[in-house]
Write a structure and sequence with these properties.
Helix content: 10-25%
Shape: elongated
CATH class: Mainly Beta
Radius of gyration: 20 Å
Number of strands: 9
Strand content: over 45%
Structural class: alpha+beta
CATH architecture: Sandwich
Distance between the termini: 68 Å
Number of domains: 1
């Protein structure tokens, strides 16, 4: 019985180590709202949270403004670049044709780019 427990423990430890090893070179970025709605002349704010593995912990983050925005829609980030765990994106609509637009808001850490799809409805 003791040998079986040792084997089970060894297998569990090796699986856990393998899973943790994968996380050593990864980061996850989440956005608090997958969809926002705003009127022309209005703004909407999105909050981003970064979970970084050890290898990304002290790395600079660069937020990327999409280049396919509809005319009149702007995105600004605070902060746009630096070492941070959270960021905000402010979307501003000025004379945007009403409709729903899917945009990708991206971040780059150590040449690894990740994007979050956000549905923006302008009324």
């Amino acid at each position: 019985m003791k040998q079986v427990l040792i084997v089970v423990f060894a297998l569990f430890t090796s699986v856990t180590f393998a899973q943790n090893k994968k996380l050593l070179k990864e980061y996850i970025v989440t956005v608090d709202q997958p969809a926002v709605s705003l009127s022309n002349g209005g703004t909407a704010t999105l909050n981003f949270t970064f979970e970084k593995s050890k290898s990304f912990a002290n790395s600079k983050v660069t937020m990327v403004t999409p280049n396919n925005l509809p005319e009149g829609l702007t995105v600004t980030f605070e902060p746009q670049e630096g070492k941070f765990e959270t960021a905000k994106a402010t979307l501003t609509a000025t004379n945007v044709k009403p409709g729903t637009y899917n945009i990708i808001l991206s971040s780059i850490i150590q040449n690894n780019k990740k994007g979050n799809l956000v549905s923006v409805t302008v009324q």
